[in-house]
Amino acid sequence: MGIFDIQILFQTILYFCAFITGFVISIPIGVNRIDFKGQCILYSEAELTNISRYIKRASIDTNCSFPIYLSVFVCIFYGLAVGIYNGFALYKSTKDPTIGSQMWVMPFTLVNSLVTVVMLVSSCMISIGFSTFCDSVKARGDSCNKFENTKWTNREDNTEFDSGPYFKYLTVAQTASWTSFLIWVCQVALGILRLVRNRRLRSQNMSFSDKDTKPIATVEPAD
């Protein structure tokens, strides 16, 4: 078996890492919303009293839905599909070292660039929304995680529910989101590197093919 193409190996690993981060982002945010009876606490404001705890100003569902759907369709589905494609190319590279120059590069680089920008937006949404909620909790001098796994009140029907470890969930989701953003930045950089390498390789091949390699005709001796 030949040697792997190192760049394809790195990209394959990164795609599967992005695939994993998709779960680590979407699941905690989704579970957190379930714990809060369908309420998205990103950008929400909590009202804390000695008697009850509840969401004073609810957030729109999009603030939670956008990071969840982005993680599922981009990180999980797209990351897995392109990771498998790169994994197959990695296997082929052991038999054909030039497989990297034969792969689609520009389309994936463009898509990954778009994904990177959108992932940056999503990460900012999670971080700022998380900070907004924590600021309302800390307004009375308490730490943001003080009221984890405690009874909160749903103002719509005045029923109580357990808040669950909301601080841990959102901390994990926030960390995974920024990690995913850095992964996509690396993918874009590797894609650009591949484009440069392929262009240089084509230029070298063209320069070799243009060289005059024909032997000079020998002159027949005069009679």
UniProtKB/TrEMBL annotation:
The family database entries (Pfam families) matched by this protein are listed as: Claudin_TMEM179-179B
Report the membrane topology from the UniProt record. Answer: Multi-pass membrane protein
Keyword terms of this UniProt record: Membrane, Transmembrane, Transmembrane helix
For the keyword Thylakoid, the answer is: no
**Where is the protein situated, by its record's location annotation?**
Membrane
InterPro entries from the UniProt entry: TMEM179 (IPR029673), TMEM179-179B (IPR059010)
The yes or no answer to whether the keyword Translocase is present is: no
According to the record, the segments passing through the membrane are: 12-31, 68-91, 103-130, 176-196
What family is this?
Belongs to the TMEM179 family.
Q: Which PANTHER family match?
A: TRANSMEMBRANE PROTEIN 179, TRANSMEMBRANE PROTEIN 179B-LIKE
Listed name of the protein? Transmembrane protein 179
This protein's species is Potamilus streckersoni
What taxonomic classification does the UniProt entry list for its organism? Eukaryota, Metazoa, Spiralia, Lophotrochozoa, Mollusca
